[in-house]
Design goal:
By secondary structure, this protein is mostly helical. The protein has 22 helices and 2 strands.
Length: 803
Amino acid sequence: MAQPLTFVLSVPETPEDHGPEPSPYDESEVHDSFYQLIQEQSQWVAEEGLELQQREPGPPETPGSGHQTLLGPEDPLVHSTATLRILASMPSRTIGRSRGAIISQYYNRTVRLRRRVSRPELRGVGRSARPSLRLYDLELDPVALEEEEKRFLLVKELQGLPVAQRDHVLRGMPLGLAEKRSLREESRTLTRKRRGRRGRRGLLPCCGRLRDACVLALHSLGLGLLSGLHALMPWRYALKRIGGQFGSSVLSYFLFLKTLLAFNALLLLPLLAFLVGVQAAFPPPASPGAVPAFTGLELLTGAGRFTHTVMYYGYYSNTTLNQPCVPPLDGGQCSREADGLPYNMPLAYLFTVGVAFFITCITLVYSMSHSFGESYRVGSTAGVHAVTVFCSWDHKVTQKRASRVQHDNIRTHLKELLAEWQLRQVPRSLCGRLRQVAVLGLVWLLCLGTALGCTVAVYAFSELMIKSPVSTEQEGALLALPTVVCVLNLGAPYLYRCLAALERHDSPVLEVYVAICRNLILKMVILGILCYHWLGRRVGVLKEQCWENFVGQELYRLMVLDFIFVLLDTLFGELVWRLISEKKLKREKPEFDIAGNVLELIYGQTLTWLGVLFSPLLPAIQIIKLLCLFYIKKTSLMANCQAPRRPWLASHMSTVFVSLLCFPSFLGAAVFLCYAVWQVRPSSTCGPFRTLDTMYEAGKVWVRRLEQAGPSVSWVPWIHRYLVENTFPVYLVSALLLAVIYLNIQVVKGQRRVMCLLKEQISNEGEDKIFLINKLHSVYERKERRAGRTQEAEQLAGDLDTW
């Protein structure tokens, strides 16, 4: 039987609703009204004596037995008409329309009540003012009239709501789009009529139109700014296209590149504001020697003309910078007030680098924790396939290109979900597991041996470079060690890839993780050898020279050559190999190497963090490199690569990337810089710390000056003595950090436990409903049997009277 259409209102309670009658929007009153409706329906059923639904004939039960068979959750239930009416009124059967039904009945009652109270008697009304029956159509359906009345009341209530809340209410109604548009237009029409009346009574029509025009203009401006903010998001459409064609695994690489771009921008801002900009505004006196001319080779070596710029550590002065004094017109000397802006460059250099690193650390830890929260959500993924199929499409998308991208995204996501589900169903025999373990052990031994050989080669070549120093005229020879390092970093991953083909992992996710681990071991070990070469060997060899500039130039050369080798790898490893595969070997396009490319990003970012103390503009070079890499890799991906043959869901990939960036990369760079600041003696010929034993001495000198300045700043030396030099606060902060991490782990475990309990409670409530339904069904069955026995007795009595 068709049910009349009902409407749902979701209006918050306002102070005007408190009156002599309870508000229908109060949640408790809604439940009370629901209970009253059930009671009224039950009483109506009992009074009318509805005929019970006929049951299928079965074996008769013994009347005297009080045993009643209850139905289980899997048994088919056959209910009577009264039971079905009660079931139809249950909240679980009226989701989306129970509030509308209650509110509609409440409005019907209150409207009738108001009509009875406010309707005047016909005796006091003239004949011309009395309503005529000719104005009414006596053939109208009462159901249609009732529905029209409910609709009018709904429009009236919507008209009294704000625009945003009205749209929210209409969006949540289980109606068609045409019906929603009609309701919106009717509510807006009533609002405009009311505003027109108010304007005719109060403001002039021109003022009202001017106000409406201003409001619409501001609203349009806000929408335009909002859409502009979405458009300013870098590479938004490109990332959607990559995710739709190649899946979340390849997309994770480009998202990680975007994250690194934000980290470098955040690191560069304080360096430009408090270090590079200040030194460029107050340049140091020119060096006695001649400044070399720019030859173009500096773009590769970083030496030559770049040495005498703000690019490197040696250019920065070790004095207090003051505002330049302009003598007065009368020829007098500068006053003491004119010598303002004292800027201690050694202290500013140390604090700026330290604060920039601290901000990066905080941002990195927050990003990692946020990524963990997004990837490892509490709860189960049951039903995610149905949600993806039925609830993923955004119906607000109208453009053909955007709809195609969204279609590709949903299709690729479904492939990844199904591949992950099929992967869980594949078993493996014991012999297959043993064979795989043996192959894994052999491949790991070969990979570790390769990493050890590369490390020995880098160490031997670095020692050779120390024994045969390069003169200043031979700048090209400075590229020897970086070239060897880049060749090893490029060739070893190809060997790892060939060895990984022997393993045949069942899971592509595991294959990527293993490749990342092997490449990470190789690159971190080589960087460790280079750090020992710079701080352990070069410092002793370059005693009379500026070794900080040499370390900065070495890191610059490594970054530039790494970028060049990435371009060569993209050209020959992807483009040429794609042409060979398609033309000669008749194969498909190669896949995008996620592990190798991600490790290249981590390696480049580690070089940036290692060199920020010796070359403050190194983050700017890294930003340029990342921007070029994005467009180069995107173009190569679209032209030379295909989607993964075995699609897989990269749900935790971004978390793994950020974690690797935090712990091996950032932590190693922090240890390297802390050792350089606290233990290594600075050069005596260049840089802001040329007269100090260590870079950290700049802070101690400043604290001594504050102690002599007076008691007004005595709290700063106290903080330095008890919070910086004392090791107890460091251990205390570490213990608090570990305690917070432990508490977060316990909170996650508690949330999982609570969700399990809630699921169990939901299951128990479902069983309770089945039990109550069975009880209700048994009550009506007893009534049916009692009514049947009464009819049989009456029929028997009538037969006896007839006889």
